[in-house]
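Journal club prep — side note

Before the paper discussion, L.F. wants everyone to see what a predicted structure for a comparable chain looks like in token form. Sequence:
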Amino acid sequence: MIQPFDDIYFMKKAIQEAELAFEKGEIPVGAVIVIDNKIIARCHNLTETLTDVTAHAEMQAITAAANFLGGKYLQKCTLYVTLEPCQMCAGALYWSQISNIVYGARDTERGCINLNTKLHPKTTIRGGILEEEASALLKRFFIEKRNLN
């Protein structure tokens, strides 16, 4: 049986958000939060737009999802994000008690895995979903940014 709502489907939605960030001159990271195969938050980086270093896609998504649900805990929710969460975002995800994190590209320098950031004990994390697409968008952004400077 074909499952239309799988990790690839939702990661494509996160990549669409990353593309919006790219168009705005933001680092192209996008995120969606899903519960029961329904997207309840769609966000992308807004650090430049808001002049706020905490305005990462994941932070925006946590707030939007909590507002949608009417509570601060994101149990039974899955975050799809195009780049492995940083330490700050992983900390916020810990406190949100999100059930699942699915990311596209690894961040071997600033990502939560190499920095050994603790996630909530009930949170699962897995990556590599549409990794090439997510990574290509980030690389293109930084190549263009370097060429402008």
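L.F.'s comment for the group: The radius of gyration is 14 Å. Keep this in mind when we get to the figures.
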